Amino acid sequence: MPQVTLEESFGDERPVQSPVKSTLAAKRYTSRAEMDAEWAGVWTQSWLFAGLESDLADVGDYFLYELGAESIVVIRSGPSEINAFYNVCQHRGNRLFAGNLGFVQQISCPYHGWQYGLDGRLAKVPDAERFDPLVDPTLRSLKPVRVATWAGMVWINMNPDAPELEEFLGSIIERLNPYRFQNFVLVQQQTVSLGANWKTVRDNFLEQYHVDFIHPQHASLVDCCNSTNVLWPLGHSCTMVEGYTTDSRYPLPEVTPPHLIPLLQGLGMDPDDFRGRVADIRSAVQQRKRVLAPELGHDYGDLSDEQLSDVWQFDIFPNTFMTIQAEELWIYGPRPHPSDPGKCFFDKWTLQIPAARASDKDRGLTLNPGFQSQVEDERPEHEQFDQRDVVSGKHSLTITIDQDIAYLPDMQRGMQSRGFDTAVLNIDEARIQHFHDWLQAWMDGQISG
Ligand code: FES
Ligand SMILES: [Fe+2]
């Protein structure tokens, strides 16, 4: 059975349970009015993961963060200064930037040539004397959006009065700092357009009830049904799943199951050594990684043994999941569509430790044989595609996420039916209820930050 823990300590006295208990009515997923309330109460109020600091290495580097109908530019304005602005010229409202990311020496509007410094200050107005009165740069500089960084990740917030990012993330920061994500390297960035509400996607990744049915391969890799779930204030949560083991609902196999064999071999271990003692594999892998890491040029630093073998998934409200192994990090989640509650965009960023490259090529050994090393010298292209490309096999976000994505539009269509009113949840789905309770509190204006 999954364990569900309410963790009160969060850096302040906020209660872990939301003041509301929300009903998961179908209209939450289909209604334009709900979508508008989410925009007012959540998207324009909360800290949101926007991109990576590694894309802002040099002064003038920028990336765009598109959310609903908004476009926000995040730019390195100085060696130790990152700014974010609404991507809109203060002359007559033209979009200033196009494309996902790039480099500029100054910010110029292509329409009438207004120019802004990298700090957003209006610097030049062509034929300025023809404005009467003259344009006041303090009133016509770019409109700022709050920005903060943590562990190589860049976060934005449209609410000027929200608490600091550190307060919003609470104890999640100290739990994740030992991984040193700032040292990880981006190896893949993908965005898939989905015919599903953003919360249909969220709910899928907040429960493991479906795992036996659509991810049968998990049963011989991880113990999903025995996860530990922690709920935090504001709607955050996490689930911790033991890896290098088998599903505890089934009898323990006598020999190393097929899915684990290549993983052990990649670590230079002999799967036959575990005949009759498959339960020992997990701790043996933890010890083997400790031995192998210095040889392969990696330092696990402050990570616990569990962090070397297990898969932890953190959910940062409202839309950022992080699936974490010691060597690989996925940051993923849905962004709402500008106008259609039945659609969203699903982003996935894959990052790996740099040692992944050396270990694969030189020795035939790797610290995490569960994934292919993809660390390259060049930043990967941002792949953009839609759900049909996943179902056809043209693009993959890994087999597990592909399996999820194949179902999501059917979930959405079902919830739009006259034959469906409300969802009902079990203990495996407790994180869904937690998320929706807090979501409702945010939408009701009970939360700031
Ligand atoms: S709208 Fe940008 S310069 Fe006119
Ligand atoms: Fe899934």
Task: Tell me what the structure shows.
It is a single chain. The mean pLDDT is 92. It contains 14 helices and 19 strands. Helices cover 25% and strands 24% of the residues. A hairpin with a 7-residue loop joins β17 and β18. The radius of gyration is 23 Å and the shape is globular. It is of the alpha+beta class and 449 residues long. It has a nine-stranded mixed sheet. It has a seven-stranded antiparallel sheet with strand order 2-11-10-5-4-3-6, with no helix packed on it. The chain folds into two domains: 324 residues, Alpha-Beta Complex (Naphthalene 1,2-dioxygenase Alpha Subunit, Chain A, domain 1); 114 residues, Rieske Iron-sulfur Protein (3-layer Sandwich), CATH 2.102.10.10. The protein binds FE2/S2 (inorganic) cluster (FES) and fe (ii) ion. Fe (ii) ion (FE2) binds next to α13.
Percent strand = 15-25%
Major sheet: order of its strands? Answer: 1-13-14-15-16-17-18-12-19
Largest sheet: number of strands, sense, barrel closure: 9 strands, mixed
CATH topology description of the largest domain:
Naphthalene 1,2-dioxygenase Alpha Subunit, Chain A, domain 1
CATH class (first level) name of the largest domain: Alpha Beta
Q: What's the architecture of the largest domain in CATH terms?
A: Alpha-Beta Complex
How many structural units, i.e. domains? 2
The whole-angstrom Rg is 23 Å
Which small-molecule species are bound to the chains here? FE2/S2 (inorganic) cluster, fe (ii) ion
Q: Write the CATH homologous superfamily of the largest domain.
A: Naphthalene 1,2-dioxygenase Alpha Subunit, Chain A, domain 1
Tell me the number of strands: 19
Structural class: alpha+beta
Give the low-pLDDT segments: none
Number of helices: 14
Oligomer: single chain
